[in-house]
Write a structure and sequence with these properties.
Strand order of the largest sheet: 11-10-9-12-8-13-14-15-16-17-18
Strand content: 15-25%
Largest sheet: 11 strands, mixed
Helix content: 25-40%
Number of helices: 17
Number of strands: 26
Oligomer: single chain
Structural class: alpha/beta
Length: about 500
């Protein structure tokens, strides 16, 4: 980015106090990581979850910072440095990042997708829809970020404000008209999306998740709701009214309110006519559409995509035609057929509700034909309360269950398995195995499978690593299954 006058950069901020001179000072860079400080830059101190970067202010000043934004002045105020005191450093960073990159969200039709499950699929399919209709578009998601057609590695569901605004700026530079992004509850609470102008917002659903961070479901709901509270009056808010908090999400929103549903009267009404493991015949607002997706949860996602596409002004006839060309997202109900005649499905389901949705979708298609063998774990250093619930729900909907490791992080995998096992009654326990080694657990599941059976490998989906004691080791569920299939062919 080009240098920017400090006075110009500070325009979106409400400063509580300014110490030092703001006239004629040029800012060469905007940073929030002290390790990236360069002479002539502005440093924004943020009180993070793990680190309070106010302690690095003396260091960045020594390294050449000419301006510092902080919530509290340091004990020693250096000559020649401008200190801007604000109420909230995280909020200030987001507003400054937007200004630094030239307010990129205002030059795009930006749509945010929030909810517990379905964010990645819905945002990605909106991106695919725009591209299929001939529009340049960008995507910010858990799986990957895309600038028109250039893929950028994704670290977080919703990036930090500097990364986020840089991505949006690059989309503008690439000629994108539309951008679609996942909006996580963490991003709402941590002010990562402050300063962005949204054209629309989509709510998918809300179930138990991230309680290790939010502590209560009420806080989690409040975090999601704040996204819709912040939408402008010329934006749209499209919500799933089959979810019990769907209407709650938009009760205080100024945006135009629209609904989608599979069960109730709504602006966009979907209905499953026929379902298979490799596709579904849907009816949306009276139009029959063949799609390459399975399950009620995907029917919800696709109905949301259809509705949001029309709310963006895409031609209805063209949208209906392109729906059939949309393809599943990596690691989301990804279907692989074994040489021995059983089906393996890789899915990211890592919450009780997501697991229920996937298993119900499989059972709706298979009926009483074939067994369902489920491999699932739970992440370490995360919400422990959901572990027994996940095991219980999986056991109730599977003919055989194998509990295994997910990303144990810094926890003992055996401890996590014991937490999950606590959710099983005596009968369920008889049909359950514990195999901590995820590769061996997947192999065992395929050994049990017979022609017509379905092996569900849940929890990691698109992830190509397993995090153990702070180290990420390469591990890809799909690759493991494909290697097993290759052996089966021999």
């Amino acid at each position: 980015m080009e240098n920017m006058l400090l006075k110009e950069l500070l325009k979106p901020l409400v400063a509580e106090k300014v110490v030092g001179n703001t006239d004629g000072i040029e800012i060469k860079d905007l940073v929030c990581d002290s390790r990236r400080m360069v002479p002539g830059a502005m440093f924004v101190a943020v009180r993070g979850v793990a680190v309070d970067s106010h302690k690095f202010i003396p260091q960045v000043v020594a390294d050449g910072a000419v301006a510092v934004v902080c919530e509290q002045l340091p004990e020693d105020v250096a000559d020649g440095v401008c200190y801007i005191v604000v109420k909230n450093g995280s909020e200030a960073l987001a507003l400054l990042a937007s200004a630094w990159y030239g307010y990129p969200s205002e030059k795009l039709s930006l749509v945010g997708v929030t909810g517990t499950n379905g964010k990645t699929t819905t945002a990605t399919l909106m991106y695919e829809m725009a591209q299929l209709l001939g529009y340049k578009a960008g995507l910010i998601s858990t799986v990957r970020n895309i600038i028109d057609k250039r893929v950028v590695h994704a670290e977080q569901t919703t990036p930090d404000p500097l990364t986020l605004n840089r991505l949006l700026h690059e989309m503008v530079e690439a000629g994108c008209r539309y951008a679609f992004m996942e909006v996580s509850s963490h991003a709402c609470v941590q002010h990562r999306i402050d300063g962005l102008k949204f054209r629309g917002g989509i709510f998918t659903n809300l179930t138990r998740d991230h309680l290790d961070y939010h502590k209560t479901v009420e806080n989690y709901i409040k975090a999601k709701k704040s996204f819709f509270d912040g939408l402008p009056s010329d934006a749209f808010a499209l919500v799933n009214i089959d979810d019990k908090v769907g209407t709650v999400m938009v009760q205080s929103s100024r945006a135009g309110k629209y609904t989608y549903s599979l069960r109730s009267m709504a602006d966009f009404k979907g209905k499953i006519i026929e379902s298979r493991l490799n596709g579904t015949l849907l009816d949306i607002n009276g139009r029959e559409i063949e799609v390459l997706f399975t399950g009620r949860f995907n029917a919800y996602n696709l109905t949301a995509v259809y509705g949001a596409s029309l709310l963006l002004g895409f031609p209805e006839e063209d949208v209906a035609v392109k729906m059939s060309l949309l393809v599943p997202v990596a690691g989301r109900f990804q279907t692989l057929v074994s040489p021995r005649g059983y089906t393996a499905i890789v899915d990211y389901a890592h919450t009780p509700d997501a697991l229920v949705n996937v298993l119900n979708a499989i059972r709706e298609v298979t009926g009483t034909r074939g067994k369902i063998i489920t491999v699932v774990g739970a992440g370490g250093n995360r919400d422990k309360g959901k572990r027994p619930i996940m095991a219980k729900e999986a056991a109730q909907r599977s003919d055989r269950l194998i509990l295994t490791s997910d990303n144990p992080r810094f926890e003992d995998p055996e401890e996590i398995l014991r937490d999950m096992e606590a959710g099983l009654d005596t009968e369920a326990a008889r049909h359950t195995l514990k195999i901590a080694d995820r590769r061996e657990a997947i192999k065992a599941a395929t050994c049990f499978a017979e022609p017509g059976d379905v092996v569900l490998v849940a929890g990691k989906g698109h992830e190509d690593y397993q995090e153990i004691k702070g180290v990420k080791h390469h591990f890809d569920d799909k690759e493991v299954i494909e290697a097993i299939f290759a052996e089966e062919k021999k």
